[in-house]
Amino acid sequence: MSNFLDRMEITLVNAVASLFSPAGSHARLSIVLYHRVPHEPDELLFGQEDAHSFEAQIRHLSTHFNILPLHQAIQKLQENTLPSRAACITFDDGYANNAEVALPILQKYNATAAFFIAAGFINGGMMWNDKLIELLRRAPGPVLDLGEIGLDKYDISTLTKRRETLFILIDIFKYLPHEERFEQLNRLRQLVPAAVPENLMMTADQIRQLHEAGMEIGGHTVNHPILTRLDKTAAYTEIEQGKKILENIIQAPVRYFAYPNGKPGRDYLSEHVDMLKEIGFNAAVSTAWGTAAKNADIYQLPRFTPWNISRNRFVLQMMQNMYRPVQTVS
Ligand SMILES: [Zn+2]
Question: Ligand 1 center to residue 226 CA distance, Å?
């Protein structure tokens, strides 16, 4: 009986969700976005996904949505033939736990996803913000004295203080010019007696593993710069080289792109959209919230990161995202 009621509820929820996201020319494509998916909850970066919360969301997605591979979803969006409650799953940056933790969960639910990988950090590299996170995670307390590199003394005696310090430092480093940030980070690494892991990001083998499992591998530049802070030539090279490195690894075309940071007008401009077309990408995703509808710009498809793990709240949150106005650059 409870099984029957459960099925009734699913049918009912799906019927309501289909009103928000019907099939055909009034369809809405929901694209969800993930980053790290560690096995265990990350105490320092609370609020992030872990294996348990990620699996709950993929289970809800597979129960209440029609999960499509990105290439199929984009094609159907353009042909006005999307099914009701269409959804795609994407990951940004290329964390190794996407292959180790997320892939088996995706496979359990027969779901395909697209992985947008910053090609400069494969095989042991790390983005600047992750370097800060991993150093702060391991720095011995109770005080972190960064006076020698022109910063303050920070209280890291508790997890909360450590997290606060991390966010302060991320804000400071975020606004440094690329070269200066690199040098300052190196000085910080000298000061903090802690080793950072070398297996945070995917290896080339893991990228091939995802590709062979039928997952889409997408471009995300080489060094994950904010494109608007680079001159045109440098931005073009970042986008083009990122594509080439990944294509070399998977021996197949890299067809889609995710803008680093991805906020329209702030992190990328229409000149970058034009570059993608010239370089030969078929479509791209931003981090503007909302869903894609008929006549959406397929080079600026919006994405959304749900955070609820209870089933009905998850669906409600996804429905709330369906009629958000989508920000784009033109
Ligand atoms: Zn990214």
Answer: 10
